[in-house]
Amino acid sequence: MSRIKKILLYGFLIAVLLTCLYPIIWMIMMSFKTTNEVFTNPFGLPKGIYIQNYVDAISRYNISRYFLNSLVVTSVTTFLVCAFSSLFAFAIARMKWKLQGLAYIYVIIGMFIPVQIVLLPLSQIFSQLNLNNTLLSLIIPYTAFGLPMGCVVFYAYFRGLQPEIEESAALDGANICTVFFKIVLPLIKPAFAMVSIYTVITAWNEFTMALVLITKEELKTLPLGLIAFQGKFATNYGAMGASLTIASVPTIVLYLLFSRQFENAISTSAAVKG
To answer: CATH number of the domain at 52-273, please?
Structure first.
């Protein structure tokens, strides 16, 4: 590769990197500015470190409570999606039983159902079950909508495993539970990383269902809580920037910790499909 081509390539990659990082950098800078400075100096560095924005976000706008609610909902949802989708995908990919193909199609159809269609029925059902304004009213639909994607990913991985591995374990006396938990699961860690990251990001940022199903202030999640920063006559943009920064930390940390597994999951999934 010639020197000019290298310079152009590196220049393009740097431009893409800055384009992706600048919104995050801008958000962090906004979190240390006063509301007046956000308008007078929107793109420049803050003149000082205005920590009061973070104090207001935690004490005045109750962002810590919203953060805890989102953390509980997201954690439980991710665990349930990984558990149910891996078990179902293993049953579809590795076992022979009646209507297994129909069951797989039934689950996959869930990927094509818009959230807006089920909002009213869900609200009425949860109202009859006394589940409205509970975190469970978010965990159940979040899990249901996360299962199809999880099943697709795990199914692809299970189909890519050599059946001789399980057959050898069965010949040594291992039952189906031993085969699944001690032999198969350690081989599909990248799939768990991929499904977990996808589910965490989806549940953490979900707004529409939370807006309809949650009205109690103490049960609101982070996306709902951010509405509180927009007043009728004024908006506290500095505190909003601080809250957005706090809300972004878990997903960024999650990706940094599991980025290698996520990349392996994508490459392995592509190899399986190929």
So the answer is: 1.10.3720.10
